[in-house]
Amino acid sequence: MENKTVTFGKWDEKGNDELELTYLGTIKNKDATYKLMTSLWIWGVSGRATSRILVYDNKNRFLGDYYLTMSCELPKKIKNNKLYFELKCEECAKKNTTEVSFYKGIPKHMVVNCNGATLLIGNFEPAD
User: Fold this and answer.
1) Chain centre distance of CA 27
2) Average of pLDDT values for 103-118?
3) Single pTM value for the model
4) Which of 16, 71, 99, 105 falls between 20 and 30 A from 47, CA-CA?
5) 3 state DSSP class of 81
């Protein structure tokens, strides 16, 4: 089911972790179908967060992921067969939207537009 989030655990100040996985849906091109999921892991006493975009093939085999470097960058949906970002954070002083295409396959770099600048927010790390 698209845009469904499953949460494991509950973060608290005692150091308990929380993991949120959200299935965004599929993106297709002429050669492949990719299933995309976001992962948000909240950990540590101060509630730090680690976020990733996970990429699978149409047989649910893990292909790799993007470890994201900004705090606001997790995409919320797939729109028009593209990964759709709505950025609203300190790094982006105003609301910005960016679409990332998989038309030529899995992008090597994940870039978004923020305040008129193009920012690299993650590189694709293939599965071993």
Assistant:
1) 13
2) 84
3) 0.86
4) 99
5) coil
How many degrees, rounded to 5, is the angle at CA 21 between CA 17 and CA 27? Answer: 155
Which tokens hold the place of 25? 């849906």
Nearest to 2 by CA among 20, 33, 27, 25: 25
Q: Give the up-direction half-sphere exposure of residue 89: CA atoms within 13 A in the CB hemisphere.
A: 13
Average pLDDT value for residue range 28-46? 91
CB atoms < 10 A from the CB of 98, how many?
Answer: 21
How far apart are alpha carbons 14 and 83 in whole angstroms?
Answer: 35
Place of tokens 């093939």: 57
State the pLDDT confidence band at 91, using cuts at 50, 70 and 90.
low
